[in-house]
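TICKET: design request
STATUS: open
ATTACHED STRUCTURE:
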């Protein structure tokens, strides 16, 4: 069993029930899926960029990404309908918990000048989105072989009804959120 899945079942559920007063254990928020997406607009000029990004995303997630194609032609970006413009991977179950464990314990600490994840990435329905500016923070990627930096978006879809419930659950998993500082900008300095 994945380490974070065991942590969720043994500690996080009890903590959330105590904190939010759920009557039914099935009402406790849980992580449904994690979606990683990459925009590869450079692939319009050279197919090599799409292949490199696909290989990196496969190494990071452990499964083959889905190629997202343009729905409409946009002449300003030299994109025609049907051209590959992005990649995405949806992870569920054990693989999702394994990825989250690697993200929290290995990848996020390797981000340069990291001061915590933004607490503003919630969508109002309990889902959290964050972005990484480069793929080299993951240990599966060899920085010497990287030809171009590729950012990615990571979305955590939860069953939580409110952002506060989702924030607390993700914090219990170990997500390093930045603490909101009260007061005006002058008081903080």
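STATUS: resolved
RESOLUTION: sequence designed for all positions
ATTACHED SEQUENCE:
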């Amino acid at each position: 069993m994945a380490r974070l899945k065991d942590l969720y079942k043994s500690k996080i559920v009890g903590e959330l029930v105590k904190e939010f007063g759920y009557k039914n254990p099935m009402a406790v928020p849980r992580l449904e899926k994690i979606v990683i997406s990459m925009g590869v607009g450079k692939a319009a000029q050279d197919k090599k960029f799409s292949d490199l990004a696909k290989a990196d995303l496969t190494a990071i997630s452990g499964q083959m990404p889905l190629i997202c194609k343009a729905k409409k032609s946009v002449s300003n970006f030299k994109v025609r309908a049907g051209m590959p413009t992005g990649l995405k991977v949806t992870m569920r179950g054990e693989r999702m918990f394994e990825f989250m464990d690697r993200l929290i314990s290995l990848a996020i600490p390797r981000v340069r000048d990291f001061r915590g994840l933004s607490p503003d990435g919630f969508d109002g329905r309990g889902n959290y989105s964050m972005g990484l500016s480069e793929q080299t923070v993951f240990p599966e990627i060899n920085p010497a072989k990287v030809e171009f930096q590729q950012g990615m978006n990571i979305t955590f879809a939860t069953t939580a009804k409110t952002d506060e419930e989702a924030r607390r659950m993700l914090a219990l998993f170990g997500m390093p959120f930045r603490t909101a500082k009260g007061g005006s900008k002058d008081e903080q300095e």
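CLOSING REMARK: Residues 141 and 148 are 12 Å apart (CA to CA). The longest strand covers residues 31-39.
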